[in-house]
Amino acid sequence: MTHDGTTGINGEVAAVPRESLAIVGRVARPHGLRGEVVVNPETDFAETRFAPAARLVLRTGAAAREVVVTSCRFHKGRPIIGIEGFHSVEDAQLVAGAELCVPVESLAQLPDGVYYQHDLVGCRVTTVGGEVVGEVTGVDAGGGGARLVVAGESGEVLVPLAEAICVEIDPAGRRIVIDPPEGLLELNVTSGRRRRVR
User: Which strands sit side by side in the sheet containing 155-160, from one edge to the other?
Assistant: First the structure.
C-alpha cells in the first residue's frame, strides 16, 4: 500500500487510520451473476478511480482490504466494476454498502475554494458571532449545490456551501465559520455562490 507499505493475509490492510483514507465511492449492490457491483461514486474522477487495474481499499466497518478493479463500464453515471477475486453474485452481496477508498496522499491538489468532502467532515461549525452550530457529518452534493450536513443540538442542519455563508473554511484547524442569513439555520434556505466539493 502506498500509505504505509503494510498489508496482511488475504489483502487485509494492517492498521489503517480512517483519516488516512478518502472515500471515492460506495458499493450499492451486485450487478449480474459474475461478481460485478454497482458503485455510487463520491468523486469527480470516477473514470480514473475505477479504471481497470486501479487499486482501492474496500472497507466494511472496521475491516479493510486492498482490491484491484478488473473491469469498469458506466450506466446512468454510475460505475459498474469487476473486482479481482469476485466471481459470483454471492461474492458481490457480501460487500454491499462497503466503502471504496484511496490513500489521502494520492489525491490531487485542488485549487483554492475547492475541497474534498473528507476535509470538511468532522469540522466544527460556528457562526461569526461565536454560536456553536454543530459538527459536519457529511456533504450533500445533490442537485442545486453542495450543502454541509451539520449535527446540531436540535437535530440536523443543512448549510449551503456558499462563499457568502461559509466565510471561513479551515480544514487543518477542523473549523468552519458561517455568516447565516436570518432564518437559514431554521429553514435551511439555499442561496448564494457555491463553493465546489470534490
Answer: 155-160, 147-152, 132-140, 124-127, 175-178, 166-170
Q: Which residues touch 25 (CB under 8 Å, ≥6 apart)?
A: 39, 40, 41, 42, 43, 46, 49, 50, 79, 99, 100
pLDDT in tens, 84-105: 999 999 999 999 999 999 988 7
Q: Print the domain residue range for 177.
A: 114-197
Handedness of CA 169, 124, 2, 60 (dihedral sign): negative
Q: pTM higher than 0.85 for the full model? A: no
Residue 117 DSSP label:
H
Q: How far apart are CA 104 and CA 116, in angstroms?
A: 10
* Radius of gyration for the alpha carbons in the chain, expressed in angstroms and rounded: 19
Does residue 22 sit within a domain? yes
* pLDDT at residue 53, as a whole number: 96
Sign of CA dihedral 171, 174, 177, 181: positive
Query: Using one digit for the tens of pLDDT, what is the confidence trace for 140-171?
Result: 876 667 889 999 888 888 999 888 999 999 98
Does 125 lie in the same domain as 41?
no
Residue 25 CA to residue 67 CA, distance in Å, equals 13
